[in-house]
Amino acid sequence: MTDNVFFRPSLQRSPVESQQGWRHALVLGVAALVLTGCGGGSDSESTPPAPTPSAPAAPENFTVGSSLDFSWTPTATATRYELFVDPDGSGPLAETQRDPQRFSYSLASDGSRVTGSFGAYVNFPEALNASYRLRACNAAGCGSFSDAKAFDITKGISHEFPSGSVPLVQYASAYLSTGMLSKDALTLVLTAASYGSNTTMLVFARSGKNQPWLQQASLQSGAYYVGGAVLSADGNTLAVRSMKQISTSTGTRVVTDAVYMYRRNGSTWNEQARLDTSTAPSTCAQPCQAEIADHMALSADGNLLTVSAVISSGTTSSSAVFTYTRTGTSWAPQTSLNTEGTFIASMALSADGSTLAVTDRDLLQTATTPVVIVFAHDGNGAWSQQSRIPATLYTYTPPLSGGRAYGSMVFSSDGNTLAVNTAKVPGQAACGAPATYSGETQRIALYSRSSDTWTLQGQAVSAAQPLSPWAFANDGSALIYGNTLFTRSNGTWACN
Asked: Per the record, which residues fall in region Disordered (predicted)?
């Protein structure tokens, strides 16, 4: 007997019996055919055979999100979906299926969309040039693929206005930006996975917006990990705030080690300076006992750096902003600005480096009228306080820090318009929401400068979720909040 083959042995018959049986079967078969042709038989309306099952059609409306999430319209008869990735798009690497155990998806409650993700840590640097295709499957097999869709990380960290790309402001922006993009969207900096005790900043560049990203540099700064980084708008200067762990009588704590400055020459990145408390501006009362804090900003050309600081004096402390300037390839301290509190909550610098705005945690929490302090530069190295704008920044509680933190401020390039993510105003109408809308609204106040005077020019009120990202155009003429676009015309702001 052959393995795995099952059969039933026939009974032995004489030749005559076999011939008679054959003729008998033939007669019965012909009679059955005649009855069937005449509509006879025991069931005159016989059930037609079931249709042969077919594989599902290609999924429609397949999209790839900037956080490597996926969505598509549900496919009829599909019982599962398969995701394929081409790691280098049009490059030579082969397309492969993503591990089904890591690709999870679910149907929206209204049944209109399916959303999926990898459900695990995503190494974004490895996915920068990837493209994806999806197909639906059932018991009959898998159908055709959707069109290939490329992964575009830039949409998750920036918004493209006619005046250029600008960073998306998110709740995490007050801490470490995981991705930074130049104004022309051709230079990208990402925070890579930690290697040992160091965090690596990876720099990528591309020759055009439809060209692949190529890695230019891998930068490691300091002895512990990166606590913040900022890229100049021209993409040629990078400031990295490095942390270190120190031991004290009450345990260990993490403090800023230094700010490392990097400059690109052609396609090569080099360290230009290491700025720490020993390089504090001379205007800090000597001996200057200071610690660089959370916030940094660069002018568009990268020649001016501002960093928040905490200055200690005995048992008290005060907040300040240190400014540094670059001449040629050399960095030097410029000045220290008193910000009237103990810890800076938010900071903004205009692209031309002429205007600086800060707000201190104390001024927001304890002052009768919370304010944003504006400093102006005279072009000859001197800074002075220009205005105190009444404003309250949006407050949220980050899940990691466990303490209160505040939303951000953004200047237009020329410093004449300031967008402040302010506290919500109860009962205020939100753009795009029905008049009867009673949900939470979020507000961005827009201030305009004429000569040295700042006034409230308009407000962008949205029904977006509290932590929705927003972006302010370089030329100060447009703002996007959630999915709502606000534009300025003749000094008046309106939603579109």
From this structure: 39-59
